[in-house]
Amino acid sequence: MKVAFFDTHPFERDYFEVQNASHGHQIEYFEPRLTPATASLAVGHTAVCSFANDHLDRDALMRLKDAGVKLVALRSAGFNHVDVGAAREFGIHVVRVPAYSPYAVAEHAVALIMELNRKLHRAYYRVREGNFSLGGLVGFDLHGKTVGVVGTGRIGSAFASIMTGFGCHVVAYDPITNSDLEKRLGVKYVSLLELYSVSDIISLHAPLNPNSHHLIDDAALARMKKGVMLINTGRGALVDTHALIAALKSGHIGFAGLDVYEEEEGIFFQDLSDKVLQDDQLARLLTFPNVFVTAHQGFLTREALTNIAETTLQNITDFEQAKPLINEVKG
Ligand code: NAI
Asked: Which residues are catalytic?
């Protein structure tokens, strides 16, 4: 099948090439993100392959329909950037990669915790400049601390498991209780308010949807312990950035580790190093010594990239062969 691959990045192309050897799709790689302005590049392709920060609103989908596209294959788990209702209306199927190495994202969340706690970014630059002093680098033992996990699906469960390994007490909030986590790891399900009030570290692993948009707002932040560490590897808009900045300025929030940011579209995944950063909130976040931002790289392990390429290409092959689309997004 002819596939237009949008928002192509060097880090993923090799994985798709290797996996495509057994599928034989004709992939054309485009660098631009998929937006209403670029959708016409898909003319002549039956499928488009789209990434997490593409912009698949009604307008873009209508242009894809006009270009003859029948399938949108997301190479991401999240689908909050797609107007699924409009796709259905235009007769375009949307498939995604619902599961790939959950360890990739869970371990990145742990990396952010370790980084912030032991201040490795500051230590790195200090030592390189011949400054071997330790002032300002005091951290805390993770052992015995309470970690709150919001969303205990695949990634949240893997994260909870790692944190119990550190000797942390894990509390969790999820509308669906995972009894295996309770029995096997001693995870205690609590209300969101209790989670906020008892946790030393809070890590977000819920999907972004109308219920979870700005889940972490002024009121939620005010309920949290002073000095709490907030980690977000879920989706940027789970957190009200304006409220987070205010809570960081007041000192109520002790640390923030962010792999996602609500206005990341058009910024993350791009090299803007020779440009003036236009996003004032992100610019402000980057000034805090107790904030560590990575540009949506939680998924970026060899294993996850292999899983993503395998599942995406299989989704396209299933569509081509008119097989049931087990990973179809129903909305
Ligand atoms: P999953 O579907 O296995 O688990 C999500 C869990 O969140 C479910 O148990 C669900 O019941 C729960 N949930 C739904 N609404 C909730 C709410 N309002 N509050 C608390 N829990 C809620 O998904 P998975 O694979 O664990 O991924 C979680 C999220 O991680 C994805 O939706 C995606 O946004 C994000 N993600 C981030 C990546 C990165 O590179 N930073 C890569 C992959 C996923």
From this structure: 235, 264, 296
